[in-house]
Design goal:
- The protein has 177 residues and is of the alpha/beta class.
- Helix content is 32%, strand content 17%.
- It has 6 helices and 7 strands.
- The termini are far apart.
Length: 177
């Protein structure tokens, strides 16, 4: 018996401009800043699709690619939510802000909590790297900063869990039932 290895073709990322032109109503975008673990990436895609995110944007540098592991972890959600790579997340966020889309960063030191923010506005939500959070340059471009309230002794939540909580609150405020 000869072992066979299947190789996944490069993932067909969507065009960021085309996504933004086709989004109607009040957009909810998710931006990933250097998420490197394929299990986290897949879980984030799955939550984003289930909770009504219009698209996911990610940088081209230091970001996990869409691999077969990411696809399996997403439970097929990669086929139902547009994913687009952008060469420069800071420039992309500045462009979104010029189009009246709030760029919402997540940071443990933020005074505002996720329930304080009105997700009914056009929003691009950024979640950061598993170890370092949002890059300082990206953090500086944010219109607002929010945090998830925590009670325990553990320093922070896993990025995929955080994304799920944040996206659930966005969906709840937008009338998801």
């Amino acid at each position: 018996m000869v072992p066979m290895i299947a190789k996944m073709a490069p993932f067909p990322y969507a065009d960021p401009e085309q996504i933004r032109q086709q989004t109607t109503g009040t957009p909810l975008y998710l931006i990933l800043d250097r998420v490197q673990d394929p299990y986290n990436f897949g879980a984030i895609i799955r939550s984003a699709e289930i909770l009504g995110t219009d698209a996911i944007f990610l940088g081209e540098q230091e970001q996990c690619d869409v691999t077969s592991l990411v696809c399996r972890t997403s439970a097929g959600a990669v086929n139902h939510v547009p994913l687009a790579q952008v060469p420069n997340l800071v420039a992309f966020c500045q462009q979104l802000k010029s189009e009246k889309i709030n760029v919402l960063g997540t940071a443990m030191q933020a005074e505002e909590t996720l329930v304080d923010y009105a997700f009914t506005h056009p929003t691009a939500l950024i979640v950061g790297n598993e170890g370092t959070g949002l890059h300082p340059d990206l953090l500086a471009t944010c219109s607002h900063l929010i945090r998830i309230p925590q009670q325990g002794e553990t320093e922070s939540l896993n990025v995929a869990v955080s994304a799920g909580i944040l996206l659930y609150e966005a969906s709840r405020q937008r009338g998801f039932q």
